[in-house]
Amino acid sequence: MRDRLAWLLLAMPLVGGADAPSRVTTVTPEYCAELSALAKTRAAGRPGPASRLAQEGRELCAQGHVRAGIHKLRRAIAMLPHQPP
Amino acid sequence: MPVLLAAIAERLAEDVDDDAIYFATDVARRRLGGNLDRWPQADGTEDGDWFETQVDRAGTATRARLAHLELPDGTHLLVGRDVTERQRLGTLLGEAVAWSLGLMVLIAVAGGWLVRRVLERRLAPVAQTAMRFAAGELSHRIPTRPEGDEFDRLARTLNAMLDRIVVLMTGVRDISDAIAHDLRTPIARARARLEDALGEGADAAALRAAIERAIADLDGVVAIFQALLRIAEIEAGARRAAFSDSDLSPLLGDLAETYAVLGDPRGIRIETDLPAHLTVHGDRDLLAQAVANLLDNALKFSPEGAAIRLAAGVAQGRVHVSVADSGPGIPPVERDRARERFWRGEAARHSPGSGLGLALVDAVARLHGGGLELEDNDPGLVARLLIPAA
């Protein structure tokens, strides 16, 4: 009985992991940092609303408001041209 | 593949709505890029398939709708978006529509009930009056309010109809009495003449004379019946189908000439004041009959050597045809009754006639939407037939 219980406890995380849904990776602090770097690169030498948005996004991410920060950073990136000035 | 992964990264970086999902894998469906950590729970999908699956977005389970594309190099790409918000919105809209419909049905049912109650309350006096009237209580009428809304207008119209029914019923009763009274005399006279002729043992010539006089009396009875039937036909409106536009002036001229000939032995003249044309919309024969009745009365009651004036014209949208005589006239208090069947004025008691002439003129005028006016001519009477102009 004890052996069977131990086997079940070991098996549960495996079963749970297999059934768990896929996770969206673009709502994490890591992705926030990735977007922050991208925004910083594109906003370099371009002061303006986009740079201010990017800065606000970075600050929100730093305060733990990941989704709000990512949203601001994305808006900033969408406003910035892809090529450096 | 690096270009594809860069494009995916770029799109995700600019996904302001935060609902895009991209996922690129190798042939063995191992992650190469995108924003899912692994292949979702949708085994068995093939190239081009659309499917829905559950994904974990920052610890919250959401629904995603994805398309599975198999690229030429055997790699796989999932493209789609988070549909949770959309589904939530759809549910919200569905619930709003359902609540709205429910509320509308509720309001409709309540409104219908309310309208029904109001209608029942407002129409109850109408039904009650109709029942009492049908039971013989002819004086009862629907109560009306001074505010005068649609129901009050309906009540007033129905009351007018009931008044008219009472008038007609009274008229029928009066006519029955009048017929019984007026026809009894000529019939009794005819019977007496025939009885006398039979009792005296008269010769064939006397018998023949008595029969001829009796026939003349009975012809008078038949004429009264014909006049009554004609008035009834006119009042029923059956002649309205024969209405047409016609010029009344030549007709009036002909009537004036005819009655001038009839008045000639007593030196009575017919003076006319007629327009060149007088177009009316109506029954030409009935109008001729009405004017002939007026001229006949004027001729009957005018003194020898008098003048009768026949005038016609249009004024205030109405055609008027007037016949003025210098006879005894009709006292003002009796003018309303003069239009009734079998009414005979004091001056007419000892002259031939049935008392139906003015009744027929009045019926013709009302059939045409007009009326008959009777006025003093100082001395005499002016009878004016009024009908709407064509």
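The helical segments of chain B are 2-13, 84-134, 150-199, 204-235, 248-263, 284-301, 357-367.
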